[in-house]
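Researcher: Please predict.
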Amino acid sequence: MLLKEFSPGQSGKIVGFRSGQSAYRKRLFSLGILPGTVFEIVRVAPLGDPVEIKVRGSYVSVRKDEIELLEVERI
């Protein structure tokens, strides 16, 4: 499942990363977005970019290009 399929208020868990651009993956790692991490969608911009998520008590805004790398599951 992809993160873009979630709506505000829904929670999920990061399962892993798709192969892709390592620069985005490194940025997500530095923000604490790692496999096994639980997150909540806080809000989505009107055109869908960026998406604000709450992860490990912090609010992080990520762009569409970055969230397309994430494989997630609903919890």
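Model: The longest strand covers residues 11-17.
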